[in-house]
TrEMBL record:
Chain intervals for the UniProt region annotation (Disordered): 90-110
Organism: Curtobacterium pusillum
Superkingdom of the organism of origin: Bacteria
Protein name as it appears in the record: Uncharacterized protein
Length: 110
């Protein structure tokens, strides 16, 4: 299983999708935070950082064309960004490799 944390994004349309932020998305947030002093310190921006990292990852992965302002406010703003549960990630990983350990010619059920 990867160490990357998958985020589930729910836009205003309700069609949820997944993104995986990386270090470049975190660095983009830090750069933007330094330019927007009114946002305050990084310790005051835990929720904004999660939303920003999701937006940055969605832009990078080609899953949105929204600007940060469109993504974070207004009638078409994203409704929710949550972490995909570890159980869901492990189940998906297991499903991807289902049957790989079964030797050829062996029954798959009893």
């Amino acid at each position: 299983m990867s160490n990357a944390r998958v985020l589930v994004v729910t836009p205003a349309t309700g069609d949820a999708f997944e993104v995986t932020p990386n270090i470049s998305d975190t660095l983009a947030f830090e750069t933007t935070l330094r330019k927007n002093k009114a946002w305050g310190s990084i310790s005051e921006n835990a929720m904004r950082m999660q939303f920003f990292r999701a937006w940055s990852a969605a832009k990078r992965e080609g899953k949105t064309t929204q600007t940060w302002d469109e993504w974070s406010s207004g009638e078409n703003a994203v409704v929710d960004v949550t972490f995909k549960s570890a159980d869901d990630v492990e189940a998906a990983d297991a499903a991807d490799h289902l049957g790989e350990d079964t030797p050829e010619g062996q029954p798959t059920s009893f």
